[in-house]
């Protein structure tokens, strides 16, 4: 398709085009942030399809988050039309989970294996610590979990680990590691590390399986290559071995996952591993203003271990980077909120244009409070995600047992929740029986009649639990997944448990469970393979970024989660010694450099405005601590930075002086020279854009009414405050408030004094206007 081919190449610069056209042999694109690495990878895939060099099923692309994968898939589709069926685009974890669903039986896992999150694994680890009398004095279950995961990431087997373990914590881990692995296998379950290791085992033991995939995938692509760990590296090498068409893109300066086993040598030794590799360097940055780039450059220059990379831009210099100093975290939050409001109201930036980044999850709380108080819509990425909430995990546990009854961690979770007379003693006896005969917990439950230590009452209780699970397991094939979910959740007593007392929390939980069922219904309606086990796999692999949606709201997230993303306005909060860099990371040079790369990643998310913020005191670990500003602020290029009051950044000298000139009290805010913010937006193109950079600022379309009006369903008219509606469960009610739009629209509806106000997702609530 020559037209598509032209379209694909036209959107690229010379270097990028070169990378796209280099379709034979290994290719590495190594380049700084915002230089179009991800864009080039996407266009390359489209190019392969448009020119017929590859069929969709011959292409695999591995990304860092599911969201990135979705975006890539959509963009490719946009470029080449609908000819993408059969192409694999996903995270390492989801792609290889898929491989294991297809071929895992060859290494002893059934198709319906469970995927354990850290919570589930911890349960197993605790249980094994109990069983093997490993005391928690020396090391916590969580500590053991980390040690084991670390070993797995480095592909150290339990036997090997036992021989190299040193010290009490590692000795304890060495004891648990083999038992943990055995328990997982028995439960037909895998933890996240297994999703990468088991495929390697599979390929190793069954070369024919490896050959099948090698032959199939002519082209292998990897984004964010700098953050791959050893197992991922091995997988990539294995897959690419037949055709040698491996294309990786990355930036060593953005490597931020060493603490999780990411291995920077993967990128540094690419040319050695693949001697005929073509290396492409991209140097033009399309994302950020000149000043933001100058700042970023001054951050990374402090690190010794970095490949040399040029980065330049045709974009305007843009605004100065603004340094914000506050008295406390609360003050900081308030200032951030006021800046957002200011840019929103005066400059017309929409809420979705803002991101607030921080080092630790706990920092979101005061910021959330400040935003909530002023009704600024926001989302927190990676807080407690929906699927990690207790009530959701309880409901999911039942569903997971339906597809895989041997899933011990989930049996333990719900065997007596809601309470059904299977107390701790009974559970212990079941487990002992299982241990003694080498059964899984479920197999023991199936043989409850034979357990002499149990009373008749206990046996009956266990028997009815078994019956509940078995009944729905037998229906799993024939019944749609959402109905199945609805029924078992009801029959298990989960819904009535949540409705028992009418606290707000429980009502919210109840609604969350309803939301889950609606989510499954959605999945059933839209998926090619709408089985419960595919649904469970998908949600088990959701990453912290994935809950982000298109709604117009401020995004709050950790610096780690911001990788690969871009926003017109970025705040980096909490730039204080001990917090960023983290105290424990400041000691070793290596760790400090990783923190600095993290700062680099954060700063380079910004397109137009970048705010660097720190507070003189912060409440941590139950105490108010006095803080000094981060060393990172003393390292940066002060020419491009202004304090909130408009003055120059006074590095070092002023470090401990009270900042009457700074901006430490909120009144300073009003003293800001307004031109300082607006200059760039007013002159030239009116948006600071130039040179063909695609504009990404989404201005709010001023609606004439100005209020928050949400059109729900054309056939139904508008759901707006004041309208009377009918709900299938709650009956008649009156709309009080409407928030959000599209998929995310919610309404608060008053259903009379018995039921009170309910917040409902319009998408699922199926309200009828009366
Ligand atoms: P990061 O290292 O942060 O992941 P990246 O190198 O992957 O960055 P992209 O996200 O691909 O960079 O590109 C940054 C921005 O620049 C995107 O909005 C992208 O669409 C835009 N861009 C990249 N190349 C071009 C180009 N040739 N013409 C116009 N816009 C471009
Ligand atoms: Mg990218």
From TrEMBL:
Q: Where is the composition biased (Basic and acidic residues)?
A: 672-682
Which residue intervals define the domain UvrD-like helicase C-terminal in the entry? 290-564
List residues binding ATP.
Answer: 31-38
The UniProt keyword set, sorted, is: ATP-binding, DNA-binding, Helicase, Hydrolase, Isomerase, Nucleotide-binding
User: Would you tell me the protein name for this molecule?
Assistant: DNA 3'-5' helicase
Q: What Gene Ontology molecular-function terms does this entry list?
A: 3'-5' DNA helicase activity; ATP binding; ATP hydrolysis activity; DNA binding
Protein species of origin: Longibacter salinarum
Report the EC number(s), separated by commas if there are several: 5.6.2.4
Regarding protein family, the annotation reads: Belongs to the helicase family. UvrD subfamily.
Gene Ontology cellular component list: cytosol; DNA helicase complex
Pfam families listed in its UniProt record: UvrD-helicase, UvrD_C
Q: What is the lineage of its organism?
A: Bacteria, Pseudomonadati, Rhodothermota, Rhodothermia, Rhodothermales
Instruction: Name the domain of life.
Output: Bacteria
Q: Which Gene3D superfamilies match?
A: 1.10.10.160, P-loop containing nucleotide triphosphate hydrolases, PCRA, domain 4
Reaction(s) catalyzed by this protein? Answer: Couples ATP hydrolysis with the unwinding of duplex DNA by translocating in the 3'-5' direction; ATP + H2O = ADP + phosphate + H(+)
InterPro entries on file: DExx_box_DNA_helicase_dom_sf, DNA_helicase_UvrD-like_C, DNA_helicase_UvrD/REP, P-loop_NTPase, UvrD-like_ATP-bd
């Amino acid at each position: 398709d020559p037209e598509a081919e032209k379209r694909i190449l036209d959107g690229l610069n010379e270097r990028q085009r070169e990378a796209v056209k280099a379709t034979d042999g290994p290719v590495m694109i190594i380049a700084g942030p915002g230089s179009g690495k991800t864009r080039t990878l996407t266009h390359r895939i489209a190019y392969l399809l448009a020119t017929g060099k590859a069929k969709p099923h011959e292409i695999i692309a591995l990304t860092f988050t599911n969201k990135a994968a979705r975006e890539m898939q959509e963009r490719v589709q946009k470029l080449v039309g609908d000819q993408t069926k059969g192409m694999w685009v996903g995270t390492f974890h989801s792609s290889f989970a898929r491989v294991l669903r297809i071929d895992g039986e060859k290494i002893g896992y059934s198709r319906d294996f469970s995927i354990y999150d850290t919570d589930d694994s911890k349960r197993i680890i605790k249980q094994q610590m109990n069983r093997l009398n490993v005391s928690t004095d020396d090391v916590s279950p969580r500590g053991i979990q980390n040690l084991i995961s670390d070993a797995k990431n480095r592909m150290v087997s339990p036997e090997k680990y036992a021989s190299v373990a040193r010290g009490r914590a590692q000795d304890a881990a060495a004891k648990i590691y083999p038992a943990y692995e055995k328990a997982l296998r028995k439960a037909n379950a895998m933890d996240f590390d297994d999703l990468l290791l088991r495929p390697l085992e599979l390929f190793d033991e069954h070369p024919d399986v490896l050959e099948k995939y090698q032959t199939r995938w002519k082209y292998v692509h990897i984004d964010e290559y700098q953050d791959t760990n050893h197992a991922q590296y091995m997988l990539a090498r294995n897959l690419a071995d037949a055709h040698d068409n491996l294309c990786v893109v990355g930036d060593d300066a953005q490597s931020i996952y060493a603490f999780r086993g990411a291995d920077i040598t993967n990128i540094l030794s690419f040319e050695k591993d693949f001697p005929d590799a073509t290396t492409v360097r991209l140097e033009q940055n399309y994302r950020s203003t000149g000043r933001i780039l100058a700042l970023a450059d001054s951050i990374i220059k402090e690190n010794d271990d970095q490949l040399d990379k040029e980065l330049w831009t045709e974009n305007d210099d843009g605004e100065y980077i603004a340094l914000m100093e506050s008295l406390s975290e609360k003050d900081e939050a308030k200032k951030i909120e006021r800046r957002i409001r200011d840019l929103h109201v005066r400059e017309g930036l929409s809420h979705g244009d803002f991101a607030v980044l921080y080092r630790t999850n706990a920092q979101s709380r005061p910021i959330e409070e400040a935003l909530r108080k002023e009704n600024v819509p926001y989302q927190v990425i990676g807080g407690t995600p929906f699927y990690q909430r207790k009530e959701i995990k309880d409901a999911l546990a039942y569903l997971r047992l339906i597809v895989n009854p041997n899933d011990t961690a989930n049996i333990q979770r719900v065997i007596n929740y809601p309470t059904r007379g299977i107390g701790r003693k009974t559970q212990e006896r079941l487990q002992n029986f299982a241990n003694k005969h080498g059964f899984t917990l479920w197999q023991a439950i199936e043989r409850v009649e034979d357990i002499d230590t149990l009373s008749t009452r206990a046996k009956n209780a266990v028997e009815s639990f078994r019956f509940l699970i078995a009944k729905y397991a037998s229906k799993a094939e024939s019944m749609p997944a959402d109905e199945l979910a609805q029924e078992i959740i009801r029959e298990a007593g989960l819904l009535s448990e949540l409705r028992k007392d009418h606290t707000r929390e429980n009502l919210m939980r109840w609604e969350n469970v309803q939301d889950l069922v609606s989510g499954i219904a959605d999945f059933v309606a839209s998926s090619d393979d709408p089985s419960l086990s595919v649904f469970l796999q998908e949600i088990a692999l959701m990453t912290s970024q994935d809950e982000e949606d298109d709604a117009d709201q401020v995004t709050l997230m950790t610096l780690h989660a911001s990788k690969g993303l871009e926003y017109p306005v970025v705040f980096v909060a909490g730039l204080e010694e001990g917090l960023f860099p983290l105290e424990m990371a400041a000691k070793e040079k290596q760790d400090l450099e990783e923190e600095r790369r993290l700062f680099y990643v954060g700063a380079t998310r910004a397109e137009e405005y970048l705010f660097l913020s720190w507070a003189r005191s912060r409440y941590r670990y139950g105490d108010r601590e006095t803080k000094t500003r981060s060393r990172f602020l003393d390292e940066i290029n002060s020419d491009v930075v202004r304090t909130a009051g408009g003055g120059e950044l006074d590095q070092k000298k002023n470090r401990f002086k009270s900042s009457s000139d700074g901006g430490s009290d909120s009144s300073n805010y009003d003293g800001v020279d307004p031109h300082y913010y607006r200059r760039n937006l007013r002159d030239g193109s009116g948006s600071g854009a130039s040179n063909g950079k695609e504009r990404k600022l989404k201005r709010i379309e001023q609606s004439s009414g100005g209020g928050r009006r949400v059109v729900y369903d054309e056939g139904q008219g508008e759901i707006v405050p004041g309208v009377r509606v009918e709900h299938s469960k709650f009956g008649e009610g009156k709309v009080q408030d409407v928030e959000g739009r599209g998929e995310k629209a919610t309404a608060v509806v008053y259903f009379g004094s018995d039921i009170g106000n309910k917040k409902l997702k319009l998408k699922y609530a199926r309200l009828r206007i009366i």
